[in-house]
From TrEMBL:
Pfam families tied to this protein: DDE_Tnp_1, DUF4096
Annotated InterPro entries: IS402-like_dom, Transposase_11
Domain of life assignment: Bacteria
Entry protein name: IS5 family transposase
PANTHER family attached to this UniProt entry: PHP DOMAIN PROTEIN (PTHR30007), TRANSPOSASE (PTHR30007:SF0)
Start and end residues of each Transposase IS4-like domain: 93-243
GO terms under biological process: DNA transposition
Coiled coil: none
Location of the Insertion element IS402-like domain: 8-76
GO molecular function terms noted in the UniProt entry: DNA binding; transposase activity
Length: 265
């Protein structure tokens, strides 16, 4: 993963530009607006502190808010996931997924969806990640940190099935999901398999199948906007997670393109 922000290349923009209405005359270039959003994600800058080299922050936020409400980032995320899988020689949709959560601190003076995770000693929110076996984020959700992992996962079943379709066969998770969530999956003919480390071990131990989602969670450290939850609404929190995955996928796609066509750099 590239540790610094880079503007969208022509190849990356071509992969996602069909989602935008480019025929209408506008004051601002949508490609530049999206570059600015990715820059915010990488640097963690506040909206009102955008440098003057970018469009005015209210214009950038307007587009972010409109695209968020329209579910555009989620659709782009699914598309770049499928494109990356196809370039890696896999089927567009996954047959196996992994699920896990991450508790993160919430910025001060925000009280919506706030709770304390007594196990991890975090006062804030809890993110649920559903990724495939190569770490691509397919479904995400954010809620208060005091809500049980399994309870958070049950409402996501419909979104998971909608995104992955009939090809989905199995979901890996820890003991927290081996209850109502596993029972609901069984009704849809999807298997749940508990993947946990041996009880006698201490410290970090890579668990087969589950380490992938742990790695995806660790990727959030490359994006300062999401190392902590700064959002007043959980919908914004979720969409920043999708944007982070989109940026990772676009970097993968660009790298493969450069490897296959080095003379086009």
């Amino acid at each position: 993963m590239t540790p610094q922000w880079m503007p969208l290349t022509d190849y990356q923009w071509a992969a996602i530009s069909p989602f935008f209405d480019l025929q209408r005359k506008r004051k601002h270039d949508l490609r530049q607006i999206l570059d600015c959003i990715f820059w915010l994600l990488r640097t963690g800058c506040q909206w009102r502190n955008l440098p003057p080299t970018w469009p005015h922050w209210q214009a950038v936020y307007y587009y972010f808010d409109q695209w968020k409400k329209a579910g555009l980032f989620e659709r782009i995320n699914a598309t770049v996931n499928q494109l990356d899988r196809q370039q890696a020689g896999r089927a567009p949709l996954p047959s196996v997924l992994c699920i896990d959560t991450q508790s993160v601190k919430l910025a001060p003076l925000i009280y919506e969806y706030r709770g304390s995770d007594a196990h991890k000693l975090v006062n804030g929110r809890k993110r649920t990640y559903v990724v495939d076996t190569q770490g691509r984020l397919w479904v995400a959700d954010v809620d208060a940190a005091n809500v049980h992992d399994g309870t958070l996962a049950v409402p996501l079943i419909v979104s998971i099935l909608w995104r992955c379709g009939e090809r989905l066969e199995k979901i890996f998770g820890d003991q927290a999901y081996n209850g109502v969530f596993a029972s609901e999956l069984a009704e849809w003919s999807v298997d749940f398999e508990k993947a946990s480390r041996p009880e006698s071990t201490r410290g970090f131990v890579p668990v087969a199948k589950r380490w992938v989602v742990e790695r995806s969670i660790s990727w959030t450290n490359f994006f300062r906007r999401i190392v902590k939850d700064y959002e007043y609404t959980v919908s914004s929190s979720v969409n920043w997670l999708y944007l982070a995955n989109i940026q990772v996928m676009l970097q993968r796609i660009q790298l493969r393109h450069q490897t296959q066509f080095p003379n086009m750099l």
